[in-house]
Amino acid sequence: MRALIDTNVIVDYLAVREPYAEQADKIIDLCIDKAYIGCIAAHTITNLFFIMRTKMSVAERRAALLDLCETFSVVGLDSQKLITGLKNHDFKNFEDCLQDECASEFNADYIVTRNVYDYKNSKIKVIEPIDFLKLV
User: Fold this and answer.
1) DSSP character for 92?
2) Domain spans, the chain
3) CATH for 2-135?
């Protein structure tokens, strides 16, 4: 099984955001244990570096994000994904559209997110963390 893990799940993990942190922690651990093949989009790393600035020092963010890059495959953005995303009016949130493009390139079976509704037009099946954990 292959899954792209959305930014909000990674934030839950890094920020120990309750009541979601336990699920996020299990999702990360299962990827480490190779229970599934996980990926994150490259722009998730840049977004996290900014998002976590009030919770972690620069050194802590760098270390945590390096760990994520070693745990997950990282799917990059290129001009084609950006153009496709910009032309795709089915997504209200451009960042979510880019997540969908990265998941497609990765041949993901699932996008794991707490924002399922934002992905109603996704090419990839979208699943909440709790439901993903039941599958793995």
Assistant:
1) S
2) 2-135
3) 3.40.50.1010
